[in-house]
Design brief:
103 residues; little secondary structure; 2 helices; 9% strand; extended
């Protein structure tokens, strides 16, 4: 990007102090593991059981989403993207509260 920078050699004594500090501030710590970061980033449409079900003459773009959950509290739909191979999600919320009309 053409940004200006410079390189400076770190003195051996300073590097040694960084490698073996005499005191570490207890506020400096690593956070715990994030359980929501996946360890498998493969696409479901590449799973062998899904590939075996593919019909070569079927137009998956015209396929409608399938209703997986239908309760008074929520509905959940699913459609596998076999065309663009992009994992994505979409959420629509409608919040209803009697407190909105209180003044």
């Amino acid at each position: 990007y053409g940004a200006k920078y410079r390189q400076v050699r770190v003195a051996d004594a300073l590097a040694e102090e960084w490698n073996h500090p005499t005191e570490i501030d207890p506020r400096l710590r690593l956070p715990g593991l994030n359980e929501f970061i996946p360890d498998n980033l493969s696409l479901r449409c590449d799973d062998p059981e899904h590939l075996a079900d593919l019909k070569p003459d079927h137009n998956y773009q015209k396929e409608n989403p399938k209703l997986l959950v239908d309760t008074p509290e929520h509905r959940m739909w699913h459609k596998m993207d076999r065309t663009f191979r992009v994992p994505k999600t979409s959420i629509r919320l409608q919040l209803t509260s009697p407190n909105i009309y209180k003044s």
